[in-house]
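Troubleshooting entry. The earlier prediction with pyridoxal-5'-phosphate gave an output that would not parse, so I re-checked the input for stray whitespace and re-submitted. Clean input:
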Amino acid sequence: MTPIYLDNQATTPLAPEAFDAMLPWLRDNFGNPHSSHVMGRRAAAAVEVAREQVAALLPKNGRVIFTGSATEAINLAMGAARTQQGRDQIAIIDTEHAAVRDTALWYRTQGFETTLLPVDADGLIVLEELEAYLGQKTALVGAMLVNNEIGTIQPVEQITEMAHRAGALMLCDAVQGFGRIDLPQQADLIALSGHKVYGPKGIGALWVRDGIKVPPLIHGGGQEQGIRSGTLSPALCAGLGVAAKLCAERREADWVHIAALADKARSLFGAWTVNGSLNQRYPGNLNIRRDGLDVGRLMSDVRGVAFSAGSACASGSGRPSHVLAALGLQPAQIKSSIRLGFGRYTSIEEVEQAAHLINQAAENQLS
Ligand code: PLP
């Protein structure tokens, strides 16, 4: 039996329209988009259509570089810190995804000083701390738009303004917000991922503002304007392009649907406490806890619902959540947290049924 899928922050199902757009490039049109003959040119044209579709959701004064994942896009973006003469400091929010956090921490081995900026109990950045931190040595600031664990929406426009005033570059990890909420128009670098927006896995993109230099991580044939060598997959590009277009077209409808699911879920999980901001939050994410609960046991008792332990980071590495810890939650509270993720294809009946199963198992455990 297929479980009820409530893990849309881990990945989203592929939109049928994206699947249809990918098929011809997997089957008959197998040309290399970098070949100059007719089959290559056809494939290249599909890649460029996809690039335009993705670019349509991003600020106008920049370019889209396709990558293999958002993690790769973020690693690529952070290299821009090296181009900032006389600046050797990187600052990110303490609750960033491992793709940003671990990359920023790795830069410590490259002579950079990396700072993790604190958040308040709601998971929102403390802007005064950022202001006090920023200075002539800051090369790059990294901030996520929507947190993957708790759904908190960070004030990225404001963070960008502050970073720019100090002369630093601004990287926004927009993976969980792309196609859903407004992007920071002044950011220098924006990373996104195909499989979080109802597109395929194995593709991401980095948007780079005109004039910003990004040193390549992968060397070779000089594809993607010399920034990211390697043959592109027209199928993956086409899938991401159509997924992005759909997100734009359905933004309002998706939001209304997901907000209704969230309202329903909040009422059904009234005995639980919400982790993270109640208002500054993407409604498709509900991270909740119930004191005394053993979430490992809960997950094995409720096999009919695919959801995440709030305490495990999205990569499933089993590392305890640095995000919930940054909010000031105690280890026992972290271990009693779960994350429910709703999406475009989740129905209200599924939310009701899942809430029934989860609440029943929780009651059995606590009684
Ligand atoms: N950033 C955030 C906020 C994410 O949620 C994820 C995936 O979980 C990533 C980055 C990494 O994306 P990808 O799986 O495309 O590497």
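This one parsed fine. Residues 4-12+251-366 form a domain with the Aspartate Aminotransferase, domain 1 fold (CATH 3.90.1150.10).
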